[in-house]
Amino acid sequence: MTVKTLSLPCPTCKKIVQMTPQFPYRPFCSQRCKLIDLGEWANENHRIEGEAVEEEPWTHDEE
Ligand SMILES: [Zn+2]
């Protein structure tokens, strides 16, 4: 029996993170990297390419 562990690079620091309970902050390697990523989101500096981003339609009805 072989258990294949999925591992992905941390989106923040590119360190390999295994998708196991050993990494509670996956896909980030650590809480720090997760917070860094969330911080970038807050600053709107973060862009995901090739992924569908749901945008809130901003309608300005100025009459
Ligand atoms: Zn990281």
Quick recap of the structure?
With 63 residues, the chain is α+β, with helices and mostly antiparallel strands.
Number of strands: 2
Ligand roster: zinc ion
Biggest β-sheet: count, sense, barrel?
A: 2 strands, antiparallel
Shape: elongated
Order of strands side by side in the largest beta sheet? 1-2
CATH topology of the domain at 7-42: Erythroid Transcription Factor GATA-1, Chain A
Q: Which blocks of ≥5 consecutive residues have pLDDT under 50?
A: none
- CATH level 4 superfamily of the domain at 7-42: Erythroid Transcription Factor GATA-1, subunit A
User: What is the name of the CATH class of the domain at 7-42?
Assistant: Alpha Beta
The average pLDDT value, as a whole number, equals 81
Query: N-to-C SSE series?
Result: EEH
The total count of helices amounts to 1
Describe this structure in words.
This protein has 63 residues and is an alpha+beta fold. It has a domain at 7-42: Erythroid Transcription Factor GATA-1, subunit A (Erythroid Transcription Factor GATA-1, Chain A, 2-Layer Sandwich). The chain has 1 helix and 2 strands; from the N terminus they run ββα. The chain has a two-stranded antiparallel sheet with strand order 1-2. A hairpin with a 6-residue loop joins strand 1 (7-9) and strand 2 (16-18). The longest helix has 12 residues, at 31-42. The radius of gyration is 17 Å and the shape is elongated. It starts with 6 loop residues before the first strand and ends in a 21-residue tail after the last helix. The mean pLDDT is 81. Bound molecules: zinc ion (ZN). Zinc ion (ZN) binds next to loops. Zinc ion is lined by residues 10, 12-13, 15, 28-30, 33.
